[in-house]
Automatic annotation (TrEMBL):
Gene3D superfamilies per record: Glycogen Phosphorylase B (3.40.50.2000)
Protein name: UDP-N-acetylglucosamine 2-epimerase (non-hydrolyzing)
Record's keyword terms, sorted: Isomerase
One MF term in the entry's GO annotations: UDP-N-acetylglucosamine 2-epimerase activity
Entry EC no(s): 5.1.3.14
Lineage: superkingdom: Bacteria
InterPro entries per the UniProt record, alphabetical: UDP_GlcNAc_Epimerase_2_dom, WecB-like
Pfam families on file: Epimerase_2 (PF02350)
Domain UDP-N-acetylglucosamine 2-epimerase stretches: 19-361
Taxonomic classification: Bacteria, Bacillati, Bacillota, Clostridia, Eubacteriales
Coiled coil location: none
Family matches, as SUPFAM superfamilies: UDP-Glycosyltransferase/glycogen phosphorylase (SSF53756)
Length: 370
């Protein structure tokens, strides 16, 4: 049984669901929590995935406690009824943590996709760092994207036999989605001159950046636009009103800043493929953009993806306005620095992670039967 509930999980689990359903060794069920709803459904439609169960728990103003308690309560009878041989959860969401905890209570084996990422700061990202760490302790199989992720788990006394290095399924999803002849559903994206403008994709939504850090980010973007006449910024804005409160006063009046509603996965992936540079506080984009040869400035103090920093595919911009400006302007002014990042080798895989995970699961059960 594959469980997920947010858009990022759906994107990264979609190629695995497809691989599992096309593999005669498995009978696969999909259960949604709908921690996100509309944006989750968009991803399911893109990848033609239908759910077997849907907890449909999203509500306005939902809290972490509500999500956790609702999943524990609503998932229990489903797990009792189906009694799956293994559940698969992804990453660091509250859906993943609560689903893993529910399976643990039922003594059902747990497979953790994208295991072993760490910042070593339990409050950043919050609550994701602790969610991911706790799932790692409960999991029977940990699918680590990189050797560094595996080493993090070994330091936490996870048995080496439980860990499989797979690459990241997000690359699988990305390579299935980006197309040269793609036409955007959002009209303005078809009018941008991607050849003669240096287009920057901006995303900013993390809880720990709300308030002054986000104001610093948007103030830096404003200055970059005003001092670089050839750049154009596309900002798909998260629906959280606290983001609009900081973004609109600084960016709304600028002609070369396009503030859009959240884009579906196909649109943002294909937009990423046409941009010059990405500024983001997202985790997944740190893996996706380098696969398309796009340098990434990370708008956070820490990243749970240090392999990307070491590989030179991302650079830490932080949340201080002057530092964001300095790092980004260097990439705009220094072709050698830009080319070094654009041509660095992405450490997150070759687009075949889902097949490696399928083989590892089959091997796990084969060994249990011997």
């Amino acid at each position: 049984m594959v469980l997920f509930g947010t858009r990022p999980e759906a994107i990264k689990m979609a190629p695995l669901v497809i691989a599992l359903k096309n593999d005669s060794r498995f009978e696969t069920l999909v259960t949604l929590t709908a921690q996100h709803r509309e944006i989750l459904d968009q991803v399911l439609e893109i990848f033609s995935i239908k759910s077997d169960y849907d907890l449909n728990l999203m509500k306005p103003g939902q809290t972490l406690s509500y999500i956790t308690a609702s999943i524990l309560e609503d998932l229990k009878p489903i797990l009792e009824r189906e009694n799956p041989d293994m559940i698969l959860v992804h990453g660091d969401t509250t859906t993943a943590f609560a689903s893993a905890l529910s399976a643990f209570y039922e003594q059902i084996p747990i497979g953790h996709v994208e295991a072993g990422l760490r910042t070593k700061n339990k409050y950043s990202p919050f609550p994701e760092e602790m969610n991911r760490t706790l799932i790692g302790q409960m999991a029977d199989l940990d699918f680590s994207p990189t050797a560094g992720n595996r080493d993090n788990l070994l330091l936490e006394d996870i048995p080496v036999a439980n860990i499989v290095i797979t690459g990241n399924t997000v690359i699988d999803a990305l390579l299935m989605t980006v197309k040269k002849d793609y036409r955007f559903e959002t009209p303005v994206l078809n009018t941008i001159d991607y050849h003669n403008r240096r287009v920057i994709l901006l995303t900013s939504h993390r809880r720990e950046n709300l308030g002054e850090p986000m104001e610093n980010i948007f103030s830096a973007i404003r200055e970059l636009v005003l001092t670089n006449p050839d750049i154009e910024v596309v900002f798909p804005m998260h629906p959280n009103p606290l983001i609009a409160e900081k973004a609109l006063p600084l960016l709304e009046e600028l002609d070369r800043v396009h503030i859009l509603a959240p884009l579906d996965y196909a649109e943002i992936s294909n937009l990423m493929g046409r941009t010059y540079l990405v500024l983001t506080d997202s985790g997944g984009i740190q893996e996706e953009a380098p696969a398309l040869g796009k340098p990434v400035v990370v708008l956070r103090h820490e990243t749970e993806r240090p392999e990307a920093v070491a590989a030179g595919t991302v650079v830490m911009g932080g949340v201080d306005k002057s530092h964001i400006l300095a790092v980004t302007q260097n990439l705009l002014d220094n072709p050698a620095a830009y080319d070094a990042m654009a041509h660095a080798v992405n450490p997150y895989g070759d687009g075949k992670a889902s097949f490696r995970i399928c083989d590892a699961i089959a091997s796990y059960f084969k060994n249990k039967l011997i």
